[in-house]
Design brief:
Length: 294
């Protein structure tokens, strides 16, 4: 296997949800452990203070707390949402260990994993909530994206919405915070566009990235490059962008045969990316644009 070849893992298809814990090796991906759940699992987030603990969310309206050091689980189940939970994220700032979840029931819930019930519920969205993401900079602050075509910024301490951004004229399926600018977020929608938003002035996007031909399912900022982000789409592609350049599209990766639905940058390697698709494969690889000198 050459350094540029992707590592691929093909999970066994299952009618219910399965959480796979994978180890990466030079020869490929190895299944370390798997956990089954009785409904589809839509999102997963790692604990920021325990490398063995993570939370998933499910189509049955519940969240599950797992410990990868234990062969059985989950350790705890939180069941308050009344419809599918589509997004879950663990707080990244020091001084708090909190999880935020977004559901098709149009509510956002805040959780302390050591407590068996939610701490509070946030209401305001008028449609399905697809994405809930903590700010990596501001304690107690998170963003949400919804089918009501808005990006919203919330303050945990105020128990209410701070900013409402009519970001697209279409369902917004994903949002993310820039790791280098506390005021910058990006949204991805079913209108095939990515838009950047400066929270100090949300009248117009600060950038718009066009090129995808179907809905954008997930967007992520790079943790190593201030103006680089990646997006994956139902057009089967993953695209890498530098929004500071006149020609922002850096690379288009086409290695899936179905909708690409998951995507993230490595926190350890500045060149490594993982993605997954409805073709039941997970790929870990180094895009050419991230291995070239800036």
């Amino acid at each position: 296997m050459s350094p540029g070849d992707p590592l691929v893992f093909s999970p066994k298809p299952d009618s219910c949800g399965t959480l796979f814990i994978l180890d990466q090796h030079e020869s490929g991906l190895r299944l370390f452990r798997s956990f089954d759940w009785n409904d589809g699992l839509f999102d997963v987030t790692w604990s920021e203070n325990n490398e063995h603990v993570l939370v998933t969310c499910s189509g049955d309206g519940s969240l599950q707390l797992w410990d990868t050091a234990k062969a059985t689980g989950p350790l705890q189940v939180y069941k308050e949402h009344t419809q599918e939970v589509y997004s879950v994220d663990w707080s990244q700032t020091r001084g708090e260990q909190l999880v935020v979840s977004g559901s098709w029931d149009q509510t956002i819930k805040l959780w302390d994993p050591t407590v068996g019930k939610s701490l509070c519920t946030f209401r305001g969205h008028e449609s399905i909530i697809y994405s809930t993401i903590w700010s990596p900079h501001i304690p107690g602050c998170f963003a949400s994206a919804s089918g009501d075509q808005t990006l919203r910024i919330w303050d945990m301490k105020a128990s209410g919405v701070r900013i409402v951004v009519p970001a697209h004229q279409a369902d917004i399926l994903s949002c993310d915070w820039c790791k280098y600018n506390e005021n910058l977020l990006v949204t991805g929608a079913i209108d095939c566009s990515l838009r950047g938003w400066d929270l100090r002035n949300v009248q117009q996007p600060v950038f718009e990235l066009l090129g995808h031909t179907y809905a954008i399912r997930r967007v992520k900022f790079s943790p190593f490059h201030a103006s680089v982000l990646a997006s994956c789409s139902y057009d089967f592609t993953v695209r890498f962008w530098n929004f500071s350049k006149p020609n922002p599209l850096l690379e288009t990766v086409e290695h899936h045969t179905e909708f690409t639905c998951g995507l993230d940058f490595s926190l350890q390697s500045p060149t490594q990316v993982a993605d997954c698709a409805w073709d039941e494969t997970i790929k870990i690889y180094d895009p050419v644009c991230l291995t070239m000198p800036a």
